[in-house]
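This part of the workshop introduces the protein records we will be handling. A record pairs a protein's sequence with a compact description of its fold. Comparing a sequence with its tokens is the quickest way to learn the format. The record below serves as our worked example for the rest of this section:
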Amino acid sequence: MFATNAYAMAGGASGQQGGGMEGILMLLIMFGIFYLLLIRPQQKRAKQHKELVENLKSGDLVVTAGGIHGKIIAVEDKYLTLEIASNVKIKINRNSILGPQSEQPEEK
């Protein structure tokens, strides 16, 4: 009684044998798609950001990760000094720069 149930659950004699190569091929295809859609674009963005941070110089208008717009006053190894308003300067990490400022801020 129990043996026949187990035999039926296993697929019986007509159950598919092998199938290892198809499974490996599907995994490789899935990894390839994952690499092309997720990993490669992320690496490209990281490389562009690294180049941006390395090429910062005094006088550049930038935006930080916190959304602060400012002008670079001083450049050090790990830190930048930004002027965000007249005589208002802040010191931030180089890596917190997102990119160049798209337009000149309005002065009041």
Observations:
- The longest helix spans residues 20-54.
- The chain has two domains: 20-55, 57-108.
